[in-house]
Known about the structure:
Distance between the termini: 34 Å
Oligomer: single chain
Largest sheet: 7 strands, mixed
Amino acid sequence: MTKDLLGRHRDVLPEWLALYYDEPIEITHGEGRYVWDAEGRKYLDFFGGILTTMTAHALPEVTKAVSEQAGRIIHSSTLYLNRPMVDLAERIAQLSGIPNARVFFTTSGTEANDTALLLATTYRRSNTVLAMRNSYHGRSFSTVGITGNRGWSPTSLSPLQTLYVHGGVRGRGPFAGLGDEEFIAACVEDLRDLLGHTRPPAALIAEPVQGVGGFTAPPDGLYAAFREVLHERGILWIADEVQTGWGRTGEHFWGWQAHGRSGPPDIVTFAKGIGNGMSVGGVIARAEIMNCLDANSISTFGGTQITMAAGLANLTYLLEHDLQGNARRVGGLLIERLRAVGAQVPAVREVRGRGLMIGVEVVRPGTDEADPQAAAAVLEAARAGGLLIGKGGGHSTSALRIAPPMSLTVAEAEEGAAILEDALRSIQ
């Protein structure tokens, strides 16, 4: 059955639509932190549909809310008042940390970032954008144009002039050998120098932890220091929280809060986990920025009643069960367990991360050279052992990405770590 589906997939879908594994799997159902494939095999899910199943598979509170809403009305568009949309927008605005916040709902993180770029360039009357090296912001024409990761940027055509800034990757690049304070100072000086050679940019867009880039992050405070330089010139700061939002990093509800000394971002984008699998994204911005457009706009599918019902139920569950705290506690244990394993495997260069957002970088032993083939072999071995993980990285895809649902238990963390240990040792 799976081979037949794979053949049909290849006959009708694009060649560039990536599939994991030498023998791709069809996931048919899930419960909690586990999923099953079409052959009946059970897997512990440490990737959550690319950080999207944030709380749990088949979470009763979310499925009940979706079912009840579907029995009333599924969709009406933004041309009509929508109570679930207003309810969720109020909660998100209050949680955002942005004063006088407005919220606009989209269907994805790509669309959210696309909207943020539209707002920033309109507000600032500039089509120049600052982005981070090794970044990823989506697959639309404008977001591909600012993505600083060659593996996910199929064209250089763009409506924007994009300039790339140092700092998103702590352990590689020209400043890697510096201490944290010196690293921040060098990146700030590079930013100041860059701004002296270009027309005034509209905004800097940055992921607090780079997702597709391999879960890399700068020292705490880098974006706060950047914010001071940007504020002097009226340049906006867009925090791409598509992967880092809702407490996944454990220490903070939003990733930007690790850099909050200079105040909140002007714009925050979100998606993925808030819908727990339903298609929800959005933008939060100060009112004067959100309201700067001078033409009509709507969203046909952004903020539908059914996706808003899912988001409300999911956010309520997350807050009432302190999943941020669970991500901090269980994630901390998992990171330390994996670091102990990594210290014994020469191919592991680094285990990094925060909360339940963990990267394991794989290299050729004795070097800093990325080893995509070894990373792919670990991915295969983990699946054979009953564990699903992801991968990513900058110049080469050699970082394993670990991001389980935030309700992960200590026993499940240990189960997954044991499988991953065997998979890592298999490449020695």
